[in-house]
C-alpha cells in the first residue's frame, strides 16, 4: 500500500472517545463495566492501526469495528459447543456438571459456608469431612480425602507412603497421561524410588515378589488410561497384588485414573473395574479423578485405610493441593446423585452422553442437517452418516460407541477455513475437519444447543461468503 494511502486510512481511524460515544457501543454499558469497554476499544483500535501499518487491509466500517469491540469485551473463558463427540474432552473442560452440581456451586459461591466449621460444636471442622461419609458409603472404603486433582492425589499418596523408599510398578503401566503427567516423573517428584518390574507386554506376580526387599514401601498399580497393549500380554490383577502386599506387610495403591462408580458394561461399553470393585479387591489406597467418568468437578479422590489417609492429611503437601469450596460443593452434589444410580445415569451429563441411545443422536443429527440445509442454501452440501465417538480423558480407550455425524461441505470455503471460523463464532463451535468436510458428532451436542449451532453456522458462512466476494472484487 502506498504511504499516502496508508496515512489516509490511519487518519480515518476514529479516536477512543469517539467510539465510546457511538450508540451501537451504548448497549455494552448494560453488560460490562466502563473499564472493560474502554480497554476493548483501545485494544481493537491499536490492532487495526498495527495491521494498517503492516500494509494489511482492514475493514474500517463502523459495523466491523463495533463487532470487534463486542468480541474484545467478552470474558476469555467461554462456553463452547462441543461437536467433537469426545465426551471427556480435556481441552474443553472434561465433565459437564449436573444441574444439581451447578446449583450447589452457585449456592456456595454467593455467601459464607460451613467449609471448615462444625455447625454442631461450633468448632473448627475439616473441609474433607463434608464428602468423606458419602464417599465411604458409595465405595465401601474406610476413609477418604479429596484434593485438587488426581495428579495431586498420586503425588500426595506417594510422598506420604514412600519417601526415600522403593515403589514397585509394572513396566507396562509406566504411562504418560498427557499434559505431562508421567508416572516416573511424579514418582521422582514425590521422593519415592521407582522399581520397574516385568516387560512392556507381560508382568507376572513373581516379578513383583522378586523385587520386594526391606527398602520396599509400596506396590503400585496404574490404570493404563489412554492406551492398551493388545496381543501377547499379561498384567497382574489388583486382588492378586493386594494379597502379595498383605503377605509382606506392604500397602497396594491403585491409581484408577477415571474411576467409575457405575459399571457401564450393560450399555455396550467395555467393562472396567469400578471404584467399588477395586476397593473390594483389597487395594489399600485408591485414587481417581473427579472430572472423568465420575462426571463431577476437577478433583482428586483418595480412598483407603484410615491410618494411610490420616498420614496423608498430616502431610504439608495436603494444604498445597487442597480442594476449594466451589469444587467441594459440586463434588458433594455429584456424589449425592449416585445414591440413586439410575437417576445418576440420567442427570449426570457425562453418563447421559456416554450411554445416549443411537436413535436419539440420530434425531438430533437429522434436525441439525435439515436446519443447516435450510439455512445455508444451495452452496452447501449437508449429509448425515454413521461414525464412532470417543470417550476421551484417558477413560475407556477401546470404547467405540456408534454415533451419527453431520458433515458439511461448502462451495468456495475450505473445510479448515470453515472449522477455524466456527471456532471463532458466537458461541464457538468445536468440530473436526475430515475428507474435505466439517464433521460434527452430535453425541455431545445437547438439544437446547441446536439453535445456537445453526446460528453460528449461518453467521460464519455469511462472513466467509462476504470475504470470498470481496477477494473476487479486489482481483
Ligand atoms: C487422568 C489420570 C491421571 C491424572 O488425573 P487428573 O485428575 O487429570 O490430574 C492420573 N493417573 C491416571 C491413570 C489417569 O488416567
Structure in a nutshell:
The protein is of the alpha/beta class.
Structure notes:
By secondary structure, this protein is an alpha/beta fold. The protein folds into three domains: 3-73, no CATH class; 81-90 and 354-474, Alpha-Beta Complex (Aspartate Aminotransferase, domain 1); 99-347, Type I PLP-dependent aspartate aminotransferase-like (Major domain) (Aspartate Aminotransferase, domain 2). It has 20 helices and 13 strands. The chain has helices at 3-12, 16-21, 23-26, 34-53, 62-73, 99-109, 129-139, 150-161, 183-190, 205-211, 238-248, 275-280, 306-314, 316-320, 325-337, 341-347, 349-354, 358-376, 415-423, 450-474; strands spanning 81-82, 143-147, 166-170, 193-197, 216-222, 252-257, 285-289, 300-304, 380-388, 402-410, 429-430, 432-434, 437-441. The chain has a seven-stranded mixed β-sheet, sandwiched between helices. A four-stranded antiparallel β-sheet has the order 9-10-13-12. Strands 1-11 form a two-stranded parallel sheet. Strand 3 (166-170), helix 9 and strand 4 form a beta-alpha-beta unit. The chain is globular and about 85 Å long. The mean pLDDT is 93. Bound molecules: pyridoxal-5'-phosphate.
